[in-house]
Amino acid sequence: MNAVTRIHSRSVVLADENIDTDRVIPARFLATTTRSGLGRHCFSDWRYLPDGSDNPAFALNQPSARGCSILVAGRNFGCGSSREHAPWALLDYGIEAVLSCEIADIFRSNALKNGLLAIVLSEPEHRWLLEHPGIELAIDVRTQTISLPDGGRIAFEIDAFARHCLLEGVDQLGYLLARSAQIDAYLQSRAVVSAGVAA
Amino acid sequence: MSAPRTLFEKVWDAHLVCAQTSDTPAVLFIDLHLIHEVTSPQAFDELRARGLGVRLPERTLATLDHSTPTLPGDANGERPYATPAAKAQVEQLQANCAQFGVQLHGWDSRERGIVHVIGPELGATLPGSTIVCGDSHTSTHGAFGALAFGIGTTEVGHVLASQCLLQSKPKTMAIEVDGALPAGVSAKDLILHIIGQIGIAGGTGHVIEYRGAAIRALSMEERMTVCNMSIEAGARAGMIAPDEVTFAWLAGRPRAPRGKDWDSAVAHWRTLASDPGARFDQTVHIDAGKVRPTVTWGTHPGMAIALDAPVPVARDAVEQRALDYMQGRSGQPMLGTRVDVVFVGSCTNGRLSDLREVAAILRGRRIASHVRMLVVPGSESVRRDAEAEGLHETICAAGAQWRLPGCSMCIAMNGDIAAKGELVVSTSNRNFEGRQGQGARSVLASPAVAAASAVAGQLADPRQYLNEAAA
Question: Most buried residue among A190, B233, B404, B456 by CB atoms closer than 10 A?
Fold first, then answer.
């Protein structure tokens, strides 16, 4: 994963609550064996009209949303399916950060592992951002703050390890494999009765 | 004497390779890794790119379920895949399992089926174990007192390569279901009712333990239905303490311990229940006696109401959007809503007991002429058992279609879909917009409600049919 330290962009708002990962990328696009090129399916059933043209009513299709990489989404974004295709599709589309007052567990974990910032804000701050689409935001992972155009700042919490991995571009699989000796020791230390496989 | 611990904490503690610190997550050992064709190909690619192998292939179990057609192949053995991409995905898993030495329950296996149906059937799902899969309904396995949760594809790669995951310890939530479910009210009604009460994000950040007299009274199949939908309340996992029902169900299964190993395993499993006085971060009480047959009216599983209640009035924009999508009319009864398609199957309700319930209602009846009904067994084993009992004959005689095992219309990526505007009564777990086909409208329900609705051609209370059958 590449390091992610700062994201600077205008915001685009999808205020709907409970945007599930089926809405981010419908299941019919999961029949793939790669992780690339999913951006064209991002929000597919929302973004395109039945004839395949862009739905002008969809927020991300507005001219003002062009180039926006910070998505402010309604409460409980990313609920439902564990498909990692959802963060892959968002990143490929050009979204680099999702801000909400609640983000579903599996989506948040998947997003952060791909360098997609998934940031949970307090309800008042979230509401304010929902009410101010198109505002210039600068997200700083190191200081855990979002800077506003008027000089105001919103502080956010992020898991210490996730923050470290984002800032340093830590390879989490490499981190795990570096604990091989501990894994071996663990395996030796326990009688293997509980796994349903021959010891 | 150590502090009292919950079931979750006991399983968590027993699998810590490295404890969590303020700066680093825990390294958690995974006993069983289930994989399927949709969420694994990119993980295997990662192993190849790094020159890694599968750390413990014997703890990895693969099957084909999501992209697989439920209609048989032609005379040449060509299966009717929805797309060439679906076929390629299946072939990729076959090749990956062969290359990395992972056992695949593929097309030629008598044990192939939905990943969360076959794990328990094989006795691979055991109390006190940690189980993960690139699928959010992995929570199903918690019915056995396992800590089981869905992961993304990056994490699938982590488990393949290391048999471990980096995890932060979740919070715990006790859902105490007191009393007894009324006659004709199922586990599906109960879990829809629970999600309706706590909301689809009510469990976010938590592992749920379902407890209480009404939970103890459930069969293993019913417990799986309840735990399966934990993720629909936002929870990472749902668990039920193992007991005699669990042990009786597992005894003699192919991968379950045998002989002396079985005895010592059961002795260990008896210690897993939450200790008296163990502390949960949250506790919710549900009165089982108040649960009625329950269905969804909207576009997520928390939009659930009693079948005999009217369609609610929208309280906010979210509910109004859901009502508009569902073409619901506030104040009108849910009962009597015209039905186009009925789907029976999925990891929620695709087991033998579910098919028996459906057959009991369909026996000697025909489904309404305008209804298309798919009955999809959860596994080859379920299919064999159902056919041995003649359930398929009852189902076909009623005018429904008896299909091959798979996820089918639950995720609707194998070609089994509903058309725009069609109303589907579905025994599956998600009623999101477009989940069962672009523009299709889903009503989640129990197998009994689904079967009764197929016969009536409209949403119907199964108790009228069950009472007739008993009379």
Answer: B233
What integer pLDDT is reported at residue A2 of this predicted model?
85
For A31, the closest of B17, B89, B134 (CB atoms) is B89
* Residue B82 belongs to domain with CATH number: 3.30.499.10
Closest residue on chain B to A31 (Cα):
B86
Most B CBs within 10 Å, among A30, A43, A182, to test the B interface: A30
Q: What is the DSSP string of A173-194?
A: HHHHHTTHHHHHHHHHHS---S
**B79 with B227, same domain?**
no
| Whether B152 and A83 lie within 8 Å, measured CB to CB | yes
User: What average pLDDT does the structure give for chain B?
Assistant: 97
Q: Considering only the C-alpha atoms of chain A, give the largest distance between any 2 of them, rounded to a whole number of Å.
A: 64
pLDDT tens profile B178-198: 999 999 999 999 999 999 999
Residues B156 and B92 reside in one and the same domain: yes
Contact A176 B162 (CB under 8 A): yes
Comparing alpha-carbon positions, the chain B residue that sits nearest to A162 is B24
The residue among A27, A129, A148 whose CA lies nearest residue A81 is A27
Query: A1: pLDDT confidence band, cut at 50, 70 and 90?
Result: confident
Question: Hey, are the CB atoms on B300 and A161 less than 8 Å from each other?
Answer: no
Find the CB nearest A177 among B86, B162, B170.
B162
Write down the pLDDT at residue B469.
55
pLDDT band at A191 (very low <50, low <70, confident <90, very high): low
Q: Is residue B230, in this structure, part of any structural domain at all?
A: yes
Residue that wins the pLDDT comparison between A193 and B26: B26
Structural domains of chain B, count: 3
CA-to-CA distance for B363 and B333, rounded, in angstroms?
27
The domain ranges of chain A are: 6-189
pLDDT at B1: 58
Tell whether B147 and B18 lie within a shared domain.
Answer: yes
Q: Which of A45, A175, A194 sits opposite B31 (nearest CB)?
A: A194
The CATH class given to the A6-189 domain equals alpha beta
Range of the domain at B449: 294-470
Task: List the CATH number of the domain containing B251.
Answer: 3.40.1060.10
Which residues 317-376 of B have a C-beta within 8 angstroms of A?
A: 318, 321
Q: How confident is the model at residue A193 (pLDDT cuts 50, 70, 90)?
A: very low
Question: Out of A45, A109, A159, whose CB is closest to B434?
Answer: A45
B311 and B449 co-located in one domain: yes
Question: Which of B167, B198, B233 is the C-terminal boundary of a domain?
Answer: B167
**Interchain pair B67, A31: CB under 8 A:** yes
Summary mean pLDDT of chain A: 94
Q: Give the separation between CA B328 and CA B305, rounded to whole angstroms.
A: 13
The string of pLDDT tens digits covering residues A157-182 is 999 999 999 999 999 999 999 999 99
Does one domain contain both B285 and B404?
no
Cβ contact B427:B446 at 8 Å: yes
B255 touches A: beta carbon within 8 Å = yes
**Interface pTM, i.e. ipTM:** 0.95
Partner-chain contact A173 B86, CB within 8 Å: no
Query: Does residue B2 belong to any structural domain of this protein?
Result: no
The residue length of chain B stands at: 471
What beta strand segments (E) does B179-281 contain? 206-211, 237-239
Decide if A105 touches B, using CB distance below 8 A.
yes
Side-chain half-sphere exposure of B247, counting CA atoms within 13 A: 14
By the 10 Å C-beta count (0-12 exposed, 13-18 middle, 19+ buried), B260 is classed as: exposed
